[in-house]
Amino acid sequence: MNNTSEPNSSATGSFSLPTSFVYPVATCHVLIVAVAIVGNLMVCYAIAAHRNLRKIPTNLFIFSLACSDLLTVSLAVPFDIEGLFLGGVWKHGERMCKAWITVYLITVPTSILTLLAVSVDRYKSLSDPLNRFRRCGFMTRRKAVIISLIIWLYSLLFALLPIMGWRTHEKFVYNSFCYFPFTPIYLTLSSLLNFIFPLLMACAFHFKIYHMVCIQLRGFQGNEPTTKERKVYFKNVRGVKTTTMFVAAFFCCWLPYSSVSIVAVLCESCGSNIPAEARVILLMFGYLNSALNPFLFAFRSKRFKAVYPNMFSSLRPQARPDGTQAVPCG
């Protein structure tokens, strides 16, 4: 993907990558896609098929995050893999180029804004050891669904602004290259509103959470807490650790590529000096986040682990009374 502000000879032409680089990197992309699709489908199935998981508002945010990751690896990454072998040449026309870019612009802010919502929810939960905020309806399933819908709607509208006319050039495909004809203002706002500010806010909430945990631990040392207080407290702490890993993984995976993109916007000559191999590798690490998320939450959760054995057993052929096996419906 190229996100410079205007087309030039290097941005709109094809690029040549050595075979020794293309095949290993393409293999890594394919592995990321395979792991991400299987993992996120398992997350979506567990939440959609089991009411006990849907009762927890945080899991609805996780469902939204899994859907975002599925869109990324199923609709965005395959074109990057193709571009590795074709040297960036685009063979799918103007409309598909617009769709590809739009999907990319939707999924990244959706992920980080959802992580911010989870961080706020964790902070409010931990700020009251007795969990009074939940009983008062601070975060309910209805509110979680509404917040998720608002995040998706906002991300969609922001992604459609270039399609509706806020761009530097009319076409998205130049010299057989799918190109980002975005204005510097749009790219700067996108980086600030959809990445930097939400990520900084999520980090700020986690610093406050860490401070709160230290205070509550000191309070427990002075006054012996009840069994209920201790149980709820440590349950929330485990949830905070999981959310922290989510934010840290997103930060480490996407920050390098986003930083390079911002530098390319602010300093065009600097961006032109960044090797194509570096951009490919950094973007691949961003996509890696979609494969990591299921392992950071669902596959570590006891509630989710309890679901999967039943899921796999339902896919096995069931024995009939006559001793034959019935083929599972597919």
- Read across the widest sheet, the strand sequence of neighbours is 1-2
Report helical residue fraction: over 70%
How is the biggest beta sheet arranged?
A: 2 strands, antiparallel
- Whole-number average pLDDT? 81
Radius of gyration from CA coordinates: 23 Å
Low-pLDDT sequence parts? 1-13
- Care to count the β-strands? 4
Beta-strand percentage range: under 5%
Distance between the termini: 37 Å
Name the shape in a single word: globular
- Output the helix-strand order: HHHHHHHEEHHHHHEE
In DSSP terms (H or I, runs of 4 or more residues), the helix count works out at 12
Could you say which structural class the secondary elements and strand pairing correspond to? mainly alpha
